[in-house]
Structures are given as C-alpha cells and as structure tokens.
Amino acid sequence: MGHDSHAARSPLDTRELLDLDRRHVWHPYGPMPGRAAPLVVESASGVRLRLAEEFCGRRELVDGMSSWWSAVHGYNHPVLNEAARAQLESMSHVMFGGLTHEPAVRLAKRLVDITPAGLEHVFLADSGSVSVEVAVKMCLQYWRSQGRGAKRRLMTWRGGYHGDTWQPMSVCDPEGGMHELWSGVLPRQVFADAPPPGFGAAPDEAYVRHLRETVGRHADELAAVIVEPVVQGAGGMRFHSPAYVRALREACDEHDVLLVLDEIATGFGRTGALFAADHAGVTPDVMCLGKALTGGYLTLAAALCTPRVAAGISQGEVPVLAHGPTFMGNPLAAAVADASVGLLLEGDWAAEVRRVEEGLRTGLAGAEELPGVTGVRVLGAIGVLQLGHEADMAAATRAAARHGVWLRPFRDMVYAMPPYVTGDEDLAAVCAAMRAAAAEG
Ligand SMILES: *Cc1c(COP(=O)(O)O)cnc(C)c1O
C-alpha cells in the first residue's frame, strides 16, 4: 500500500482497516500478524470512546482505563484542545540543543513547584521508559563522578513495573516472561521481597528490617534503589504502606545510595495525593513522571532531580549528562502538559479523586462474594477486583462492553482507573462492568 499515497486519504472501511492492521501494525505485547481483533475507535469525547461499529450492542463505551492512567481530564477537552491549537499555530517542534522555548520552561517550573521540595532540575524525555533510563543514567553517572564507579547496580522490590526498555525491564518483577526470556542479557539487579499489601496496614517491622538489611548488604555496589511508591501498577496493581517508602529513604541516606521514585503511574493525583511520595512525606533524589503528564494527549515524560545529583554529575570527569532525545522538550507536548497540570490545580482535583474513590468503594462493595473474586481494593481513583485465576481477557472485555464500559483486564485481575471527571452514573456503570467482567472472565 506504501506506493499509493492517495489510498490513505479516502476513509478506510472498517473491514479493510482491520485487515491492514492485522497484517502490518504491531500492538502492545502482541504477535505479528495480530490474533485478536482490536476495536476501532472513531473518536473520543469526555469519558466516552466512540467505536467505528457496534461491539456487544454498543457504539460508545465509557472508558474505565483513562488510556493507561493518562487521560485524567477525559478526551477532547476544550482547554487542552485550545492549548494544542495555540501551540501548533506558533510551532510544533524545534530542537532543544542550543534552543529553548516558553512551553518547556513554564512546564519545568511548574513541575518543580508541585513536586516534593528539593527536586529542582527537570529532564524532559519522550516516554516513561526513557525517563527511567535517564534516571538510572543520572544515578550511575553521579557515583562515577564521585570516584565510586563500582556503585552501578540497582535495587528494587518484587512486583514492580518500570517500563519496557532495557534498564526498566531489569527492575520489573522477575517472575514471569521478560526476565526468563532475557536472563543473561538484562543487567542483574538486587531484589527485595514484595512489600506487604495494604495502604492502611500497620507497617511490618520484619519487612522494614529486610529492606534496611538488603540496602546495607549491597551498599558498595548500589547506585540507587528504584520503586513505585504506594501503588505497584502494571506489576500487579498492589498497594502498600507509605512507611516502606520512608524506610527506603532512611536506608538510602544511611548507606549512601540514591532513591528513585517512579511516579509515572501514580503522579498527578491518582492515589489521592498529588504525588504518591506525598503520602510518605519523602523527597527522592530522582523522580520520574509520565502518563497523566499531558492529560493523555501526547507522549511526554520527565526525570526530576535534586541539586546534589545535578552538581555531582556536572562537576565530574565528564561534566555533562550525555542524553538528548531528538524530540526533547517538544513544545506541543509541553504546552499541553502545562495546560493539563494547570487544569488539575485550578480545579479541585483532590475532591474529584475522593468522589471517584467513594464511587468505586460503593460500587465494588461486597464484590469479594462473587465467584472467582478473592479480594477488592480501592485507593484514590483506582479500583481492583483480584481474581483467583488468570482473567479471560476476551470474555471479560465483552462482559464489560455489554455494560457499556471499556475495561482491559490483565493477569489475575479486573481493574479500573477512570478519568477524574467520570460522573457518578458512569462510575456506577464502571463498577457493574467490573463485576460482570470478573464473573464472566
Ligand atoms: C507505564 C509505566 C512506565 C513506562 O512508561 P512508558 O511511557 O510506557 O514508557 C514506567 N513506570 C511505570 C510505573 C509505569 O506505570
């Protein structure tokens, strides 16, 4: 089809589109050619996705996923549209080497203002995984600049997820696919046990000792500890006590190890605090942001660090951070991100997330009685039904769609993290769909 440039201009009928998609387009974690037909989305507005054709009797689905944690304000938002349009009129992109611009500078200042005190320097990257790569590079280079190049391993706890490029993969949960597939290829990192579950649970003293001991034992080879604070997302949607994040901060300080908090999923209000680190009252040495940063409009991420890390690198043997993506600081993405964070701060995000949390708690109450469901957990705008078995993704997706909701269960759970603007009725539909997906998937 590549030879016929006009073919792309006339609209594709849905059959043709799906056929081309199957033959030519990779989807996340998919085979080639694709086996399961995806749904074709025509447009999206508010909390609704409009499909090109009916699926399970529905043309529109309430989005229970916020497009993987990102679309916190919903789709086609007039303020974000206007920010994008206005920026497009002046420039979509210019290189960041030797040039700068207002959208990137405004956004960086805003991020410094709202993240935990002490984070002052912002590296803008194109995706969450790349921001984790940059965070790791910062930490390794910091120690090398101090003449301590042996400190180049990472420690994390089990059950985490930090992205799909190499350094992030090496600190994802070692159980399951990627580590087994890539053993001998991935850098070997230090793993502590998974944090005991429960956001409100009393901290387990034995586990705190285990964390401290693991940091202490490996201190000479550790550049950094990297974890998702409070909520482990794609590794299993588990919540834990902020006390463990504090324990890591203390252990890292005691043993001269840097602390990286990956807030790519948890940032911008999702857990009920603006950043999950705020639950713990902790400032990391490096913090990664992504996903909801642009309100789900464009790909953008950031790695923020403290003056200590920045100075350590910049006064070292190679006194620069050798990283510079082509689309670094993309003005279009930065302008939308600035508008999205502005929208969050100007509205009452905390009350909205609390309302969503209440809706999820009410709608999922008693769901642990359903056959196949072993637990229910809700924190902020995140709701999870834990299953006692692997979810049948296709069956669960259809069951949710019959209730007019888009859900994408994975592993052994059905979960939702709806946009903060989801109305109460739509929230009730999301919960009903989760129950149905758990029962049928
Ligand atoms: C999604 C995610 C990433 C990776 O971000 P991408 O933009 O998909 O590369 C990293 N860490 C966490 C905690 C995430 O949820």
Summarize the structure.
The chain is α/β, with parallel strands linked by helices.
CATH-defined architecture of the largest domain: 3-Layer(aba) Sandwich
Bound molecule kinds, no repeats: pyridoxal-5'-phosphate
Radius of gyration: 22 Å
pLDDT < 50 runs, ≥5 residues: none
Please give the CATH class of the largest domain.
Alpha Beta
Number of domains: 2
Give the amount of beta strand, in percent.
15-25%
What spatial form do the alpha-carbon principal axes imply?
Answer: globular
The CATH homologous superfamily of the largest domain is called Type I PLP-dependent aspartate aminotransferase-like (Major domain)
- Helical proportion, percent range: 25-40%
What is the count of β-strands? Answer: 16
List the strand order in the largest sheet: 4-12-11-10-7-5-6
Structural class: alpha/beta
Tally the helices.
Answer: 15
Most strands sheet:
7 strands, mixed
Q: Quote the CATH topology of the largest domain.
A: Aspartate Aminotransferase, domain 2
